[in-house]
Amino acid sequence: MARTNAQKTRLGFFVVLGTALIIIASYLIGNNQSLFSKTFTVTTVFNNVNGLQLGNNVRYSGIVVGTVKGIEMENDSTIRVRMSIEEKMHRHIKKDAIATIGSDGLVGSMIVNIIPGKGASEVVGSGEEIDSYSRIGAEDMLSTLNVTNQNAALLTADLLKVTQSLKNGEGTLGKLLNDTLMAQNLQEIVVNLKYTSVEANSAMKELNSIIEAIDLEESVAGVLLNDSLMAQKMRKTIQNMETSSVAMDSLLQNLNGTVNQMKEGKGTVNLLVKDTLLANQLQRTMDNIEQGTERFNENMEALKHNFLTRRYFKRQEKESRKKE
């Protein structure tokens, strides 16, 4: 059956319309995925991407500026994420920007948020890496809450044990709570401490009054406190006393040693004290020396009157008188 011109026209119209719709849809999809605009690449490193996938959006200050183009596992704790960002946003993203992973709403897909830096930094280059911040995921929070609940349960059990012990009067605190005699003793101790504090304050006031009554210019205390020369003299005097005490100690030790030797029968002094024969010999020797001295004086007097030596002694007397 031959087609009419109207049918051919209608068919051509639908073909052109469908082609146009396909082109427009492709442009919109490509524009959304940055296929038809200039882009540059920025990378970052995370410890956990929390379900991030290829094609997820990249936002800068809440504005969609690109998509996730690559997720590579470098090692067991490092995941590198490569982002394709529109060229027009290049001048806004600095090297001190920080990348984080979040969610698009409460149950939406994961996205990469780029937070601007606070300092005046340089613009990030294509292919360069920016810092990242890994937020705590829901699983980590649940695990932390579980550990916290377990610790709270253990702490509550311990508190119950402590409370029960206090009720039973166990331990020092339990005795303080239940023993009235100990409470009275503590009260008396507190009263005594207060009394001691009052007495100490009174003593301090008296001491202050004594110090204020001291004449710092005329009294000995004032001289000792203000005169640096006197302080030096006192210091030297004390040092000399220490030196003298050391010397006296050494002398006493030597004297004790001498006395001990005398007690043991050693030395000349012990012989003089105990040996009567030696003492008699010394006495006779001293008597002979005195007699010899008297005879020597007599002989010298005789020489003065001898005619041979008389002139010598007279000359000596004249010279001594001249000197006087």
Describe what is shown at a glance.
The chain contains 9 helices and 7 strands; from the N terminus they run H-E-E-E-E-E-E-E-H-H-H-H-H-H-H-H. With 324 residues, the protein is α/β, with parallel strands linked by helices. The mean pLDDT is 79.
Report on this model:
The protein is an alpha/beta fold. Helix content is 60%, strand content 15%. Among the domains are: 26-135; 136-178, no CATH class; 275-316. The protein has helices at 5-32, 138-167, 171-178, 180-213, 220-226, 228-264, 268-274, 276-305, 310-323, and strands at residues 39-46, 57-60, 63-75, 78-86, 98-103, 110-115, 131-133. It has a 7-stranded mixed sheet with strand order 1-4-3-2-6-5-7, with no helix packed on it. Strand 3 and strand 4 form a beta hairpin. It is elongated. The mean pLDDT is 79.
Please specify the SSE layout and strand pairing:
Elements: H1 5-32, E1 39-46, E2 57-60, E3 63-75, E4 78-86, E5 98-103, E6 110-115, E7 131-133, H2 138-167, H3 171-178, H4 180-213, H5 220-226, H6 228-264, H7 268-274, H8 276-305, H9 310-323
Parallel strand pairs: 2-6, 5-7
Antiparallel strand pairs: 1-4, 2-3, 3-4, 5-6
Mean pLDDT across every amino acid position: 79
Largest sheet: 7 strands, mixed
Q: How much β-strand is present in the residues?
A: 15-25%
Low-confidence stretches: none
Spatial strand sequence of the major β-sheet: 1-4-3-2-6-5-7
Beta-strand segment tally: 7
Q: Give the CA-based shape.
A: elongated
N-end to C-end Cα span: 185 Å
How many whole angstroms does the radius of gyration measure? Answer: 59 Å
The helix tally amounts to: 9
Q: Which percent bin holds the helix content?
A: 55-70%
Order of helices and strands: HEEEEEEEHHHHHHHH
Name the structural class: alpha/beta
